[in-house]
Design a protein that fits this description.
two-stranded parallel ribbon, single chain, protein transport, Sec-independent protein translocase protein TatC, TatC
Length: 318
């Protein structure tokens, strides 16, 4: 009963007191954390399969076929690495970390929806449409960046192990190997979000599409330098695999920004939307000369007196 009454008292425009905002934030955070924990518990039963999936490209590329295989390193110029774990608690720690990461990824639709549901009531209709579009475009862009890193890692691992001195064994701690793979996936995924970030700045009115187009030389140089540092290999092919898609996405973002600028100019000429307030013109205007206002005189009294004399026992009409 109390809950239904609270819903009826809620403002139709989504406004509510600070205490209600904090209560809603607490509830949505609780739902997001619960979803992550449930997914993490489920992932704990399959964490070995998840670990194998993460390190599979590196293991197939540079992993030794036998433990501490020194014969293959002596007879061949290709060096291999032995995936190892050290410490009694390392397997348990690895299981906890892998399960939590898998829980965050697996529960991402739930906690992203909770974040959206908390922010959405304060947005206009067109802002809701744009934010949904950004989320819909950001997820596949991040996945595409992670896919590129997943396929660049084998070549990077081969190049890095070529620096191993002759007769030395390569020990690849599993914890560090998983951290490296996940770090590469996150870096590549976020790099693919750069064009989307520029589009968000354009839709927010911070930069224009023409200004973004003027940055193309510096942007290509910056992306190339970033690709050189992000890919640990020294071959140009790996750098192009990362730099070329980002440059293409940048020019696509420039085209979308210029179209949005054109649409914004047309919308400004048409006037504000139904759920937006119009701009106020605060420019001072000349109102001309003001004529003095004189109070009306009191009617004459019955005894022949004029205004200012007493009327019915009072000094004025009141």
């Amino acid at each position: 009963m109390l809950k239904s009454a609270r819903k009826q008292q809620r403002d139709p425009e989504g406004r509510m007191p600070l205490s209600d905002h904090l209560r809603e934030l607490r509830n949505r955070l609780a739902k997001a954390v619960l979803a992550i924990l449930v997914c993490a518990v489920v992932a704990a039963f399959y964490y070995k399969d998840i670990v194998d999936l993460i390190i599979k490209p590196v293991r197939e590329s540079v992993g030794c076929k036998e433990a501490f295989d020194t014969l293959s390193q002596k007879d061949s110029k290709d060096h291999c690495g032995n995936v190892t774990m050290s410490g009694l608690m390392s397997p348990f720690t690895l299981m906890i970390k892998t399960s939590l990461v898998a829980g965050v990824v697996g529960a991402s639709p739930i906690w992203l929806y909770q974040l959206w549901a908390f922010v959405a009531p304060g947005l206009h209709r067109n802002e809701k449409k744009y934010s949904l579009g950004f989320v819909a475009a950001g997820v596949p862009l991040f996945v595409a960046g992670g896919w590129f890193s997943y396929h660049v890692l084998p070549a990077a691992a081969k190049v890095l192990l070529e620096f191993t001195p002759d007769g030395a064994l390569n020990l690849l701690p599993l914890n560090e190997l998983i951290d490296l793979v996940l770090r590469m996936i996150v870096v590549f995924g976020l790099s693919f979000e750069l064009p989307l970030f520029l589009i968000m700045l354009n839709f927010g009115g911070v930069i224009t599409g023409r200004r973004m187009l003027g940055w193309w030389r510096g942007m290509i140089m910056g992306v190339t330098v970033f690709a050189a540092f992000a890919t640990p290999t020294v071959d140009p092919m790996s750098m192009l695999l990362l730099a070329a898609p980002i440059v293409v996405l940048y020019f696509i973002a420039v085209g979308i920004a210029m179209l949005n600028d054109k649409r914004r100019r047309a919308a400004r000429e048409a006037g504000p939307a139904d759920d937006e307030a119009s701009d106020l013109d605060l420019t001072p205007a000349d109102i001309g000369e003001i004529e003095p206002v004189t109070a009306p005189s009191l009617p004459e009294q019955a005894d022949g007196g004029r205004s200012g004399s007493r009327v019915n026992g009072y000094d004025d009409v009141t």
